[in-house]
Fold these 3 entries.
Entry 1:
Amino acid sequence: MIQAGDLVFIWNPKKGDSFLVKVQPGQSQGTHFGQIKHADLMEHDYGEGLRTPKGEVYFLLRPTLGEYTRRLKRQTQIVFPKEAGFIIEHLNIFPGCTVVECGTGSGSLCCTFAHFVGDTGKVCTYDRREEFSALARKNAEKWGVAHRIEFNVRSLDEGFKERGADAVFLDVPTPWDYIDKAYEALAPGNHLGILVPTTNQISETLRALQEFGFADVQVVEIMLRYFKTEPNRIRPEDMMIGHTGYLIFAVKTLPLPEIKAEESPESSCAEAETEPSALPKCEAQAGDAAADAPSAVKGPCI
């Protein structure tokens, strides 16, 4: 049965109306078809339908992470689910890993990272503004992942505290100014992700990535288009989720070792003079001949 404190996604099949609510006894959710009391939700289980006072049915569904992050309370632009899933795969986020993030904002991506690192992993997130960090913490608590997150109110000018991180993500206005900070925090061979909204920011970032020797650099933009689900008239929805940002991915590599200069012919001759046993065969034979015949003139070796 649904319990107090649970998150419930309430969906109506007639109009597609939906609400994401946290169950609190004594509260109610208004809809186009009447009020739904939270106490009534606690008399049902996920997957069941509940009728409103006007007789309309709302199904009680388990919320997805995508629905939650899309609807969470925000004071900033968020990373949308269409980018978040791509980021998770391309940064290779796994249970137990350590993710370092700058640009906590409202905590959308922060919650996503924390969801996937599990209780054995950790997300270290940074934002210079206290109010953003506080809101992100509340959003993470609502989804139940705040205990996996270390919130830092700190300017990235001071750098990250972490070293050897499994992944680093930057969502800041001038990421090219902080590639060095990301490089310091990231373990060699692991991935850096960056989100920027404009193409001129891509150019500046690419130059900085080249300067620090990052490899396998990729830039991608993701478009998302839903389709109507009426079997007799399947077609795209009238509106789609277009540009929300450009994603940049790169891998930290270590500097190449310096190439030793090749030995010059002059140095080889010098070594040969000091080590008779290392003389070319022709010179050695000429030396033997000279010893046998002192009056002989030493000629060129042909």
Note: The radius of gyration is 33 Å.
Entry 2:
Amino acid sequence: MDTTVADSPESGSGSAPDGAVTAQRDGTLLRLTLARPDRRNSLSSSMTDALVTALTEAASDDTLRAIHIRGAGDDFCAGADWVATNTGGQRPRTGDLVRRVPHAAHRAIELLQTIQLPVVCSVRGWAVGLGCNLALAADFTVAATDAVFWEPFVARGFSPDSGSTWLLPRLVGLARARRMLLLGEQVSGASAQDWGLIHQAVAPADLDSATEELLAALAQGPTVAIGLTKQALHHAQHATLPQALTQELFNLELSCRTGDFKEGLAAFAQRRPPGFTGR
């Protein structure tokens, strides 16, 4: 089933000028498509709000087992549409960004990191700014070898946002983070894999099949245990070893109460593949 999560009020004919985020339920998968191909899927304010809404709703949907985020057409996402945001009209009052961004772009990044469902991004073409950071915040990003990851904030005269300074050093270290953030170095999909920036780079023709293979594996896994592991990894990024061990202990207590835990033990004893249900 396809539903439009958000689009322009003028979307009666043709493509919506402000774009759309569409949600497609595919069994236990939720597929979110950034749909504004004529602007390389740059995110309007309404699209960012829609992405936050879709992820928030997915977080409490017990029937979902994985999320797929992709861009329509030839690109993943060219970032936030700053040109539209800053063209015409009255100048926003002081503090506008401080009030607005935490509930929009920043909230989307937080949700990707903390939602207890595995998130896979498939990237072809450009992944820029906020679009790049959406891909980096996902649990797994599969990209075409000729895709381009770019953080052009400083080149445009302003400092990074949407988690750039948190995500990049943790993924690739400070030296490479500086190359991307201070020098604006563009990184190909192939190099992104070599750097450890993303999960996998494949030939453009193989992007869809590689993504579907990964999504299928995640959707058949023990969803609760996957979510708790993701939560523990996120917690451990700012925890001491004793704090991380304590968190693992509580998560272990929860995961051992699931039906999938019992199925995993039974499958091991019977020497067969487990049939996890996500419960």
Note: The beta strands are 2-6, 20-26, 29-35, 66-71, 119-123, 126-128, 140-144, 148-150, 187-188, 200-202.
Entry 3:
Amino acid sequence: MVELKTAAEIERMGVAGRFVAQVLAELREKAEVGVNLLDLEKHVRRRIRERGAVSCYWDYAPSFGRGPFRNTVCLSVNDAVLHGLPYDYRLRDGDVLTMDLAVSVDGWVADAAVSTIVGTADPEDARLVAATEEALAAAVEVARPGGRLGDISAAIAAVARRHGYPVNTEFGGHGLGRTMHEDPHVPNAGRAGRGMRLVPGLTIAIEPWFARTTDRIITDPDGWTIRSADGSRTAHSEHTVAITDDGPRILTHTA
């Protein structure tokens, strides 16, 4: 069931969103050559504790993972793109690092992800990261009252096609609010003009992610980390967005 949010509830989600965005910005600054993923995880734990917030990942045990998840941030490197478990790994020059964070503040959730390139960027990796950011911006732009959920999905897929990237629809965006995952599912490909009507009060996480050369995925033996099936590099961008009478409102901006 889709739960529409009041203007006051959207404001409260915005508080969580600003915190999520700030922590991701801090992680981006810290993600340098030689930094251990476990140190990034420790930073997030400390920030959540200081804020009095609650991690949406800790003890998370969905049907698709080998739960419970016992970390506070998903850190995925290179061909890993979703649900990456932080582990004892020091970042190397040229790594593509995706950081995905969902946090509850005073009972309201926000979720966002960014991909960054550590040190020297391979031009093709930079193009891939930029494509996910472009797709996210295109999807947010059409997330307006009177539109359809398929408009968002189609906007993402159109950017992927333009850049020559295949699209996986198994994992995509989702509703959120009181919990991290709510209805509706927001696939990264679809037909414009189809699907659920977009109405004020709907809050969704929009999250385009692409691999360079495949739409197939595999899961690591850890039961969580999802990778491109052919080992090609990946990237992922995500915002929490509210549909309002005035249009889309991104809740995971730093300001």
Note: The longest strand covers residues 96-105.
